[in-house]
Design goal:
This protein is α/β, with parallel strands linked by helices. It has a single domain (5-313), classed as Alpha/Beta hydrolase fold, catalytic domain (Rossmann fold). 39% of the residues lie in helices and 15% in strands. The chain has 11 helices and 9 strands. It has helices at residues 5-11, 14-26, 30-44, 107-115, 138-155, 169-188, 205-213, 219-222, 253-262, 280-284, 286-297; strands spanning 63-67, 78-83, 92-96, 119-123, 162-167, 195-199, 240-245, 267-272, 312-313. A 9-stranded mixed beta sheet has the order 1-2-4-3-5-6-7-8-9, sandwiched between helices.
Length: 315
């Protein structure tokens, strides 16, 4: 599944993390730094070849597409799925996945979102699945998300019916996109999106790597791939739903609580008892649906300085 497990258990093993950090302290040559950054990206983006073992084919109604903007190099593309809801003019979600697998490993969660009545546009970042390109980077996945968002704007022209959803590292990608759109809204007053949903995500890549590798090294400042959501969440300028499994062993729930506390109203934190990194949506059940419904009814303009709302718990 598209979880942080590969990042935390395979990618950022202690010996590699220590090697990267110590090397970053002593290597001064540009070539050396480039090698370190490439190795770091390989450890962060644990791309699985082929299809997920639990994938049994696309459901009827899913439309495949490719995006090839003029800014891309020859041979590069973003491959995606568009699965319109049965109801016309239904709210639409941009789905952004994490660091492992590709769209074939995401279908179970995409199916759940569509079952809740949403149209879903989901993409593989360049380098994943049928999206061709070089080894992904923080900058490239941010760019891919923005390009996919522009496609969603065409598919669902009503800003009040558009949501951004990110799972795990995809939550950091979603926060970056939401912050971009929020800053644009702050400048011209035009709403671009109804809200943001982030699930099983973290404050920054350095924070989660430090926590899981149990190291005292200043990882946050040494990694080139920052994914610094904690510094962006206050600028999203839209309603926010933060979801986390209380039993997540890969990304501690406290990171979602910290993101929630740093965000402005309107916002809600849904902690799901017994849920792990990948099953909050299914275990939360009706509480997840109610949280999404509440997000869709929230005011599009957050109010700065509001007292943080109490976390909600799924029961």
């Amino acid at each position: 599944m598209a979880s942080m497990s590969s990042l935390l258990l395979s990618g950022l093993k202690r010996r590699w993390l220590a090697w990267l950090c110590m090397s970053a302290l002593v290597v001064g040559l540009p070539v050396g730094c480039a090698v370190l950054q490439h190795k770091e990206r390989e450890l962060v983006f644990r791309i699985e070849p082929g299809t997920a073992r639990w994938f049994s084919g696309l459901p009827s109604g899913v439309q495949e597409f490719d995006l090839k903007p003029t800014s891309f190099k020859a041979g590069e593309n973003i491959h995606g799925w568009w699965w319109p809801a049965e109801r016309k003019n239904a709210p639409a979600i941009l789905y952004l996945h994490g660091v492992r697998w590709n769209l074939t490993g995401q279908l179970f969660r995409i199916q759940q979102l569509r079952a809740l009545g949403y149209s879903v546009l989901a993409i593989d970042y360049r380098g994943f699945g049928k999206s061709h390109g070089e080894l992904p980077s923080e900058a490239s996945v941010y760019e891919d998300a923005r390009i996919a968002w522009e496609r969603l704007e065409v598919l669902q022209p009503d800003p009040s019916l558009r949501l951004i959803y990110g799972h795990s590292l995809g939550g950091a990608v979603a926060v970056d996109l939401a912050a971009q759109l929020g800053q644009e809204t702050a400048k011209d007053g035009k709403a671009r999106v109804r809200g943001l949903v982030i699930e099983s995500t973290f404050t920054s890549l350095g924070d989660v790597a430090t926590a899981m590798a149990n190291t005292s090294l200043p990882v946050r400042w040494l990694l080139s791939q920052k994914f610094d959501s904690i510094d962006k969440i206050g600028e999203i300028n839209m309603p926010l739903l933060v979801v986390h499994g209380a039993a997540d062993r890969y990304v501690p729930p406290r990171f979602s609580e910290q993101l929630f506390n740093a965000a402005r109203e309107p916002k809600r934190l849904l902690l799901v008892p017994g849920a792990t990194h990948n099953n909050s949506m299914s275990l939360a059940g009706k509480n997840y649906r109610q949280a999404l419904d509440a997000l869709m009814k929230s005011s599009a303009a957050p109010v700065a300085g509001n007292t943080p709302a109490a976390p909600a718990k799924a029961g």
